[in-house]
Amino acid sequence: MAVDNVGVIEGWRRLLQMMKAQKGSYAGYVGMKIVMAIGASVVLECVGCCRSNCDRSVRILGVVVVLLGHSGGLIGIQ
Description:
Layout: H1 8-21, H2 23-53, H3 56-71
């Protein structure tokens, strides 16, 4: 909207036109965001369990796994 200097309504119209033209791409994007959010929640749940119930070496392993996931794009729901 800022680049083309258009208002909110015109911006939404343009977005909806782009989405109609590439339905598969947008559906894939939304699906991938859902899958990555589920994966991030599983990783964070594992880390939470390890942090509360395990010894120090497993905690360190959990931190490494989270950092690797974060560097790979698993950052949770945005």
